[in-house]
Write a structure and sequence with these properties.
The complex is a heterodimer of chains A (290) and B (207). Chain A has 290 residues and is of the alpha+beta class. Chain A contains eight helices and nine strands. The chains are: A alpha+beta (290), B alpha/beta (207).
């Protein structure tokens, strides 16, 4: 299959708008689960408002949240795909820009020093484009994530040392969740990276924060910590919007990587309850959405 | 735990009657403001032609569509999606915003800190919590964008919205020193050690 940049551009544009309007089914189910377990009256009202908002967004064909986020495109290229990588990246950028101008969407992206907004949702190294490969034949998958800033500001890295052990990793996560309180728009998905280098650790936390609900860490030790922390954060009483209740998080997700004998890094990246993501597939048969 | 309908702007007595746990619905006019607007006004010394005395501001930067001026509305924008951003980033601007511009009601999400709580008490103000991330719903409470100032900061301009039934919002910080955010945070901290103990992650004590 030859990857057509025009098809990529149209898909990149469509995915941005689609991600902003339709919440993935796993998150909707997550709301049902949290609502069923919640006993606090204020928390129940707030969860009800969030669920109502999902329905209003669908009915009025509107954005779920005003924060159009930092645009992230995760591209996974399968086998037997011929592509021009530069043309592909440029096409994604054009699609992102066109979504912003044509819908129109708020451009939430500025130069980090001058704070100038180009009104295009693009800038230096933005949109973020991650490219990976997998074994699917003649398939290119593009996942679009508009990462909201309220929860992205809930990002932390600590280069712990081996003597601190796994206990300090868990303590770090609990303390950061307390510190963030309602600012990160709970109920959240708490993404935790353990191991790697500093940059890989932070990236693992982002992968964890944006992983669908219902998935588990592939590493059994990571999965164990994931289960323990998921239980623990919902005993803090922070609740939806930080106004009390059980539903602080849908789940804590952990991703791990091997690390150095002298290192024990941990990272936290939080995803708010508007856990938006959209995926499109390009195959010889055309474009489809998952 | 009373419900109040406030037709903006409001008086000192109306604001001081509000207590944490009450709910509020706003009517008529609401202003939108956030990081860049406040930085420009209070670090950059810029002023606005809007009279904010006794009014409410919501921490927001909206999604808007450019339109031709219509009969009865000269503002060149209509709303696409308007929601609320995290308030804590603009914590240090609450007092000057109330003192210089006379703002009485702050609407946001996630709550604010001690500096804001002190300003609300000293100057007679209240903080109302919106459900963050529920912007599609919030947009249905806004009738139109009536005017915009400082639009060179777009989308972080100073917005004037015409509203109808904006709420219900929860009073989470009042002029009597009450803060639900501080209460929840204190409760979480009090549970911390027991939770860490269960995880086998309590701080090591020195032998």
């Amino acid at each position: 299959m030859q990857l057509d940049p025009n098809e990529v551009e149209e898909l990149a544009k469509a995915l941005y708008v689609r991600a902003l309007k339709l919440l993935p089914p796993d998150i909707k189910r997550g709301f049902e689960r949290l609502s069923a377990a919640e006993t606090d009256a204020t928390a129940r009202t707030i969860l009800g408002t969030m669920v109502q908002n999902i329905a209003v967004a669908e009915r009025t064909n509107n954005l779920l949240c005003q924060d159009t986020g930092i645009p992230i495109y995760n591209v996974t290229i399968g086998r037997n795909v011929e592509f021009d990588g530069v043309a592909m990246s440029e096409a994604i950028r054009r699609g992102c820009e066109r979504a912003t101008r044509e819908h129109p969407l708020r451009s939430s992206v500025v130069h980090p020093i001058t704070r100038k907004n180009e009104q295009s949702s693009c800038g230096i190294r933005i949109p973020i484009i991650n490219v990976d490969f997998d074994g699917r034949d003649e398939t290119v998958a593009i996942e679009m994530i508009p990462k909201g800033s309220g929860s992205e500001n809930g990002s932390f890295l600590q280069m712990l040392i081996p003597a601190d052990g796994a206990a300090a990793v868990k303590r770090f996560v609990i303390d950061r969740v307390i510190e963030c309180g309602g600012r990160v728009c709970p109920p959240t998905i708490v993404g935790v990276g353990i191991g790697g280098t500093s940059d890989l650790c932070m990236h693992l936390a982002k992968i964890a924060a944006t992983r669908p609900l219902g998935t588990t860490c592939a590493d059994p030790e990571g999965a164990k910590i994931e289960a323990e922390l998921s239980e623990a954060v919902n005993e803090l009483g922070i609740g939806p919007q930080g106004l009390g209740g059980r539903a602080t998080s849908f789940r804590v997700h952990v991703e791990v990587a091997a690390t150095h004998i002298t290192m024990n890094p941990v990272a936290v990246n939080i995803q708010c309850h508007s856990a938006r993501r959209a995926v499109g597939l390009i195959t010889p048969g055309g474009v489809s959405f998952i | 735990m009373a419900h109040h309908v406030l037709d903006m702007p409001v008086s000192d007595a109306q604001v001081r009657a509000l207590k944490i746990g009450d709910t509020v619905t706003l009517e008529t006019v609401l202003f939108g403001i956030r990081d860049a607007t406040l930085i420009a006004m209070f670090d950059g010394g810029r002023t606005t032609r809007f009279d904010l005395k006794g009014h409410a501001v919501v921490h927001t930067a909206p999604n808007v569509r450019k339109v031709d001026p219509r009969p009865g509305n000269s503002c060149p924008y209509e709303a696409v999606c308007i929601g609320t951003t995290t308030s804590m980033r603009v914590e240090r601007f609450t007092r000057p915003l109330m003192q210089r511009e006379g703002v009485r009601v702050i609407i946001g999400k996630g709550g604010m800190g001690q500096g804001t709580l002190d300003a609300l008490r000293d100057l007679g103000g209240v903080y109302l919590a919106v459900v963050g991330g529920a912007a599609a719903l919030e947009t249905t409470w806004i009738e139109s964008i009536e005017d915009v100032d400082m639009d060179d900061l777009h989308p972080e301009s100073l917005w004037k919205f015409r509203i109808k039934g904006f709420g219900p919002l929860l009073v989470t910080m009042d002029s009597h020193g009450g803060s639900l955010h501080a209460d929840v945070n204190a409760a979480a901290l009090s549970r911390r050690d027991a939770i860490l103990g269960k995880l086998g992650a309590a701080e090591r004590t020195r032998a």
